[in-house]
Amino acid sequence: MEIGVHGLAQNHEFRADHVQNENDTVVKPKESALFGYYADGDTKQILPLQETKPYLEDWIGLKILHKSGRLKFITVTGGHVKISDSDIKKHVVPYLREKPRWMWLGREPPKVGKSI
Q1: Domain ranges within the chain, ordered by starting residue
Q2: Three-state secondary structure of 42-86
Q3: pTM
Q4: Are 70 and 57 in contact (CB under 8 A)?
Q5: What is the pLDDT of residues 17-54, one digit of tens each?
C-alpha cells in the first residue's frame, strides 16, 4: 500500500464520513464541513466538493474515496456541534454496532505518513 493520504484512500477498508450542522453559525461557510467552499474570488457562491479544485485534482484522496463509495456526507439539524438525540440514533449508533474496522491484535497500526 502506498504511504500518505492517497495510499490511505486506496486502502479498501478506509472510509471517511463527514457531518455538517445545517444551522451552524461558527463554521463559515457551513458547507466547508463537507469540503464545499467559496468559488474563487466570490464570497457568495459556494461550490460543492465535487466542483472544487482540491477534489477535481484529488489533492488529498477525497475523489478516490467518493468514487469508490467510501465518502459519506451527513447533514443534521442543529447548530455548531449540537446534534439531536434522533440524529445520534440515526447516524452514530449504527457505527457503534459495527465490527471494528481495525483489529490491531498487538500489532502497530499501519504507517500512513512521516512524523514531523
Answers
A1: 5-97
A2: CCCCEECHHHCHHHHCCCCCHHHHHHCCCEEEEEECCCCCCCCHH
A3: 0.62
A4: no
A5: 778 888 888 989 999 988 899 999 999 999 999 999 99
